[in-house]
């Protein structure tokens, strides 16, 4: 968790609703539009559609629609005790490497072995408050930018394509038995059975040979490094069917799924900030 004094959190004079936000790419001209709407091949400023300031947290704060609250960034996806060793053991198995390679995730799993990202909290506060829930872009006075599918594929080495529909995965009878084992999680109390640390300790035990071991390994990778959310240190059962498919060697379009999940989380930050109503941190 990053920390900073409240003055540095809410002070932001580099951006204003007076910048007259314009979309990065104007729409094509309709037939019948007068020639005066185009200047040197570009739409005139009064024709370019304007981004709704209400979709941007920074603009809402400046308009007094809701007060600024401190934003803190937690990173549950960093390396943890036991994960690096578990990855090393799995990748030493030629059959496991073959399965992960056919699924298109071998490089991505290998990268997670020592994945640790430094969080620049002050910079992120400025950037996140420029996120538009309308356009799914970060809006600055000079234009817009956003994470793209190409960024995800190049940085995370995730597959773009799929051999099946990731939302309708067919499970074999054997897969269904493994799914039940995954849902039970580590043999602890129900409230902690899906915690990352307990999961690693149980399924990553070198002396344990669970039938769902590979699926459990992939589940943790998916739940912690790709589809984590604001619930800390806990897997979600929604990743289990994906993990079972990948454990069979099926390719899942993880890159677009990750990007969509990222967009949803950025939208949710703004919704949480509005809901805080100045009474708590986000």
SSE ordering? HEEHHHHHEEEHHHHHH
Distance between the termini: 12 Å
Strand content: under 5%
Number of helices: 12
| Strands, total number | 5
- Low-pLDDT segments: 1-17, 23-34
- Widest sheet, order of strands: 3-4-5
Helix content range: 40-55%
- Average per-residue pLDDT, rounded, comes to 80
Task: Please describe the biggest sheet, giving its number of strands, its sense, and whether it closes into a barrel.
Answer: 3 strands, antiparallel
Shape: elongated
Helix/strand class: mainly alpha
Radius of gyration: 23 Å
Q: Can you describe this structure?
A:
With 282 residues, this protein is mainly α. The chain has a domain at 99-115 and 147-273. It is 41% helix and 5% strand. The protein is built from 12 helices and 5 strands. It has helices at residues 6-10, 57-63, 83-91, 94-102, 106-111, 121-128, 149-156, 173-184, 196-203, 213-226, 240-247, 254-276; strands at residues 38-39, 42-43, 131-132, 137-140, 143-145. It has a 3-stranded antiparallel sheet. Strands 1-2 form a two-stranded antiparallel sheet. α7 (149-156) crosses α12 (254-276) and α10 (213-226) crosses α11. The longest helix is centred in the C-terminal third of the chain and has 23 residues, at 254-276. The chain is elongated and about 60 Å long. Mean pLDDT is 80; it is low at 1-17 and 23-34. Pfam families: PMD (PF10536). This is Aminotransferase-like plant mobile domain-containing protein.
